[in-house]
Amino acid sequence: MSQSLRSDAADNRARILDAARALFAADGLDVPMREIARRAGVGPATVYRRFPTKQVLVAEAFRPQVYACHAIIEDGLADPDPWHGLCLAVENLFALHARSRAATAALFAAFPRAFDLAAAREQAIGLLTVLMGRAMETGRMRRDVGVNDVVLLLMANGGLHAASDRARLSASRRFAELAIHALRV
């Protein structure tokens, strides 16, 4: 945000982002802008004044999650044991994406032009590729697995459905175990 907002405008913006994150997490990216406005307690015009397109809103709503993805992969790269670092990164990425049904779609599929999500995605994939290469060098990771395979696993994890957030997170943890087993030599 390059310019300062009045306090009421800043409050509206924050409420819109909170509502968007909650609705996207629960229902995916197809939530109508009008529903986001209703949940935020503002009119649709206020939403469009702050976020002229849904792409802009999605980008702003998921910016913290994109940075969290990068931090998770960087933590994996910092681990002195590359295989362990990759396993932790997979577990933590799966958990992060299980908390929000729309996170994977926002990062890997939908709205690729939004706030440089495409650039952020490419950077994350680049970091993940380096981490996977290091894990392969240990001899504990299969050499026939590519970064697109891990992205596919993340996308599958993003599609987990469960009756509750807790159940979805539990299913995601189990899926991460299975994924790690599939990556192992």
Automatic annotation (TrEMBL):
Keywords associated with the record: DNA-binding, Transcription, Transcription regulation
Gene Ontology MF terms: DNA-binding transcription factor activity; transcription cis-regulatory region binding
Keyword Transcription assigned: yes
The keyword Cytoplasm belongs to this UniProt entry's keyword annotation: no
One matching Pfam family: TetR_N
Residues of the DNA-binding region: 32-51
Protein name as it appears in the record: TetR family transcriptional regulator
